[in-house]
């Protein structure tokens, strides 16, 4: 019978309460803005893989080889909009089409022609050709410049019976070829030349001392002469390691900061939400239990609370992290251990009032157990308050994690915004003015904090009618 | 009556401090003992080198080494059961006997942890009292203005700024400020408390100190006063809706004196507590801030001790920080009790 009634039932008290709450929440403009931001952050987390150019950023953040083709300390690409000179952006050419010609049974030549429109003033830092191979081959790269000159950039043999990576950096490999090319036009005795600026400069008398960029289409002829039958080459890439790179530039370990920032979003949300959800739940239940039982239990519980209240949180967290070198899980646990004290006092005073309500008395008279009264009749009333303080606690949890990470005590297996700032601090980003490395992580922390502050303060205004302005 | 309350509160604070120190020494017992072991062996080895220079027979040396290690372990109670070890460690901490640092030195080169920590307290206090005073002045003033015109443009826009600043890490803001005002537009020093070498005369020293304090104080105040203003606004606004305000207005008392005479007077105790409470919170939060500005205070000490993994300094600094923190809370309650007559008379059950 009872299930029958329930299926048609009027919404329960909690549901009604939440519906009312939502109705009022919709009225608060900045609360809605906060919610929109929250949805954006969640979407970023879900679609992380489509948003970042380096999908393994999260797992291989500290793997130097994953980032080695990027330029170091390069500003973001969009500074081109604001500067007089145009900087070459980093480009990855992954789809090279090779045409294969068999010369003899053991020998074949694959050729790819890469056309590159160069319309910039500042040349790339480096040109890199890389891939994986098995067997043996000779790599030959010939550059045809827009002015008709050709440079034989690379001639190099590779051989390995097993799978192996190969990586050719033109700035290193083509030094001699480019030097002799440049000396045809300007004779400067044994001066070290900048390979990349020479490649992309007009061939005139001042090609070395005062290079003028030569714009136009550059053709890179990549010839792979396979000298054994079983030679296989996999995912060949040609990379222009630019003077500017990515949406937010790179750091001093050549990492793409945009990728790190997006990969860090999920950790910020995770740390913030989990810590505040656990600690506020504990705090609310603690406060209710303390108020409900009263007397001896109450005073003991209040004393324990007072002790926790008197512990300076951040210094203790720093010392604990310094000594125990925590993972992200233990850090969250440690934060929960201290964060639950926040709502206790307010909850206790609210619960003291609820305890005197007639329906609690009625439930008692009906013989309801203590647990039932606490969880069924008292805690639900406090749910809106609990949500408000959860929202307001998320930023502090994120902030504490960031602060611990800033000191270099974070979990080294993940990437968080605090850790990016720690690297920036140690990498001299502040002294060298590498703003694209310092500003975005902090803005992200502030934005996520603002999101939850908007939501939390909006709930606060609803819960405290006195604060309403009309 | 107030004195009874005060003494009770102070005693309570001391008891809590003792309990927390016991918790610390339980938590950090293992790592502290490892450090102590290392230090003992280092000390004995040092003594051995001295003796062996005089030329003594190797048997005696070996025997001496063992005896000395035993003696020193006895001093630190290292061979006793866990409970008594934790107890003695806590007693040491309570008597400010933090031992010697492993790597770090005080400005004068001493290795006593207590001296290393103590010489940094004034620096921290100078920085934070200055900024908190400015912070409270600006914050309360703005808060009253906001409450006066609640719901108007000024109130709403500053509230939005408050929420924007809410999750902003002060140390990050410090980094950005240094980047802009010390390196891009070099008008302030990038850190430290005085120029190198420091100026001679007292007046020049003072100017130099103010010059170095300017950027950190501006940063702290700029981050801080928004929250203070929001809090003040809420408290004053809450009081403005009380009945006595309505009756005051009904009696024809001018709005100015309603606001400053009636509303603000009742709002003063909570504003003061909240301000001091957030001062305490920011005190522990802004410890990292000192590291960014290389301000030679207690926060910077955490930073340096973490970097050099100097456990005794870290733990000594933590104990002192806790002591200051608890004293602050006790002091706060005392002030609050003094201002709020309800506590004076009745007190908590």
TrEMBL record, chain A:
Domain ABC transmembrane type-1: 265-456
GO cellular component: plasma membrane
UniProt subcellular location: Cell membrane; Membrane
UniProt topology in membrane: Multi-pass membrane protein
Keyword Transmembrane helix: yes
Gene Ontology annotations of biological process type: transmembrane transport
Main location: membrane
Stated family: Belongs to the binding-protein-dependent transport system permease family.
Name used for this protein in its record: Nickel ABC transporter, permease subunit NikC
Organism: Defluviitoga tunisiensis
